[in-house]
Amino acid sequence: MLPAMAKLCCGISYPHLRSMTGTHTFHPQSSPLCGGLLERAAGQHDCVEETELSYQRQGQQALQEALEIVRDADGWRMEMSEGSGDAIYSKVRHGNHKVFRLEAELEASPEELYDILFVKVEEMHQWNPSIGQIKVLKHIGKETTVTHEVSAETVGNLIGQRDFLSVRHSLKTAECIYLGGAPTHLETLPPQPGFVRAEDGPTCIIIQPSANCAGKSRFTWLLNMDVKGWIPKSLVNQALPRAQLDFTKHLRRRLKTPCRVRTHH
Ligand SMILES: CC(C)CCC[C@@H](C)[C@H]1CC[C@H]2[C@@H]3CC=C4C[C@@H](O)CC[C@]4(C)[C@H]3CC[C@]12C
């Protein structure tokens, strides 16, 4: 009853939200009754639209903050460079926290990568053994989602299994596609007992078409992770760039086999 009322009074429904193209067409003030009615109905101060708007803002802010980190040229040092041309740079930020930036060239157009990494994010465990599961819990328009990610319980994962609750936001411009993310909260999915909830963000991926080369992209990925739990920093700072290289390796394999038969779990 309540969700239905909320939708009615706010004048929204999911199909409507999904079909929205721009984030700026979303005006909470266009339904002046919303807050008042809901408050009376449920004794709450919040309205559905306001919550969604808050995720949208968190997502946009995450992307902006992550881009600022990437664009600040100071203090980066090379961590490693691979034969494939991939390179990882790192920088120590406040609180002695190290962030990592992977640079790679991938054999796919920005649009293909957007499709694999954002639209079909729930399929990631099928091609990436580091991922246990990814679920999109909320869609806010086309550009923003709230996702729950569980890393795999893989052998050799020195950190151990983690889960993440993130807000994700995508932005397409004439030049680039940006994917941003940051840790967030959702009442229906608090940290699970016995499970270590890690934080990933503010983080971003920048996908640019390679100069003079249709069908290839420059891929820049800022990993800004707090793995939580009691793990020596030196170990974490080895595992994270490893995880970035592994991710890129599996992404390349996925790009080579776009039509393989999918196994459903
Ligand atoms: C070292 C241990 C703790 C973690 C290892 C797994 C890491 C590398 C995994 C866990 C969750 C994963 C993220 C889950 C979801 C997304 C959103 C997508 O649009 C781009 C990739 C991105 C951002 C993944 C990058 C890799 C990731 C951060």
UniProtKB/TrEMBL annotation:
Q: Which reaction does it catalyse?
A: cholesterol(in) = cholesterol(out)
Name listed for the protein in its UniProt record: START domain-containing protein 1
> Which one Pfam family would you cite for this protein?
START
Its annotated compartments are: Mitochondrion
GO MF terms listed in the record are: cholesterol binding; cholesterol transfer activity
Name the source organism. Pygocentrus nattereri (Red-bellied piranha)
A Gene Ontology cellular component where this protein is annotated is:
mitochondrion
What is known about its subunit structure?
May interact with TSPO.
- Organism lineage string: Eukaryota, Metazoa, Chordata, Craniata, Vertebrata
Single biological process term from Gene Ontology? intracellular cholesterol transport
Name the Gene3D superfamilies for this protein: 3.30.530.20
Q: What is its main location?
A: mitochondrion
Q: In which pathway does it act?
A: Steroid metabolism; cholesterol metabolism
Keywords of the record, alphabetical order, are:
Lipid transport, Lipid-binding, Mitochondrion, Steroidogenesis, Transport
Residues in START domain copies: 72-260
